[in-house]
Amino acid sequence: MRRRALLLSGTSNPPLAAAVASGLGPPLGQVEINRFACGEVYVRLVDSVRGSDAFVIQSHSYPVDEMLMEQLVMIDALKRASVGHVTAVIPYLGYSRQDQKSLEREPISARLVADMLTTAGADRVMVIDLHTGQIQGFFKIPVDHLTAVPALAAYVGRRYPGNLVVVAPDAGRGKMAQRYARQLNASLAFMEKARSVERHNESLPLGLIGDVAGRRCLLIDDMIDTGGTIIDAAEALRDGGATEIVAAATHGVFSGRALERLEASPLVEVVVTDTVRPPEKLPPKLSVVSVASLLAASIRAAFQDRSVSAIFKELEATADAADG
Ligand code: R5P
After folding, report:
1. Cβ 140 vs Cβ 124: under 8 Å
2. SS3 category, 203
3. Any idea which residues carry the catalytic annotation?
């Protein structure tokens, strides 16, 4: 008997969910999502899900705990309604920066989130550009770790051809910077960043390894939250003689006054994806590359038991062709 695919969405990013659904074909499944007066999350699946292969798409964006809880209770509802198989599709995984203890008596919250998703009943997880690849090991279920780097690099390659240096703003982004540099045929530079362990979201760039004077720089990161990391790094590059500085990051979280601060920074353009719902009206420096087709292709492959990694090879080849 043929399995039925079912795509359901929480409330974090309806435009992305709709775009993924239109790439897949069948419309989004209907879910009632409400809040009790006290703030508790309530969901109810409108139609039968019995035996189906469900994909629950939800980014853990602001307000992160509510968005996470919505996804957990949706998975629970699916399991209790005799779904066949559940994949938690998480374009942006919340708590992923809390993947180790930096101070004594801290939790490892990313591991707790992995356990919560598994306990709720997820059979598989699909995520995009985790803060660190090792987070995959926090899950005892299969993880499809997708990347938006080929799509972002292709965009940058078209907009800023040639004379490019890819800059990692901290030690953790070295591998990601190499992927960009390979695709863009660019050279590399690395910055060193000190982070305050007591004050979250505060960082200080310490040094730069590489040649940026007179060059166009592409600063990359997995996410931009307050903008502190990328803005401090951009200022350091400008002071180091870079002629033009562009930023690319997968997750545009943009907390607080981040967008305003980015507009006032030395960056000429900030490119992110729509893993986190972008503002309705984009500020002049902000550009968005959609991950909808990446997600639709990956969901289709997972549903058909085909290789998901083969999709990257296809996408990289397409991006190369588009650049060349
Ligand atoms: C940290 O290691 C991450 O890769 C990002 O650099 C960081 O989370 C960005 O946060 P913010 O924009 O607040 O500096």
Report:
1. no
2. strand
3. 193
**Structure tokens, 145:** 């770790």
For residue 77, the SS3 value is helix
Residues 111-155: tens digit of each pLDDT = 999 999 999 999 999 999 999 999 999 999 999 999 999 999 999
216-224: strand order across its sheet? 203-209, 187-195, 164-168, 216-224, 244-252, 269-273, 286-289
Q: Phi, psi at residue 125, to the nearest 5°?
A: -125, 140
- 199 CA from centroid of ligand 1 (Å): 13
Pocket test residue of 132, 225, 232, 267 for ligand 1, highest count of atoms within 8 A of CB: 225
DSSP letter, residue 173: G
Q: DSSP states of 112-144 as a string? A: HHHHHHHHHT-SEEEEES-SSGGGGGG-SS-EE
> Which of these, 119, 265, 98, lies nearest to 195 by C-alpha position?
98
- 215 close to ligand 1 (CB < 6 Angstrom): no
* 24 CA → ligand 1 middle, Å: 33
**This model's pTM is above 0.85:** yes
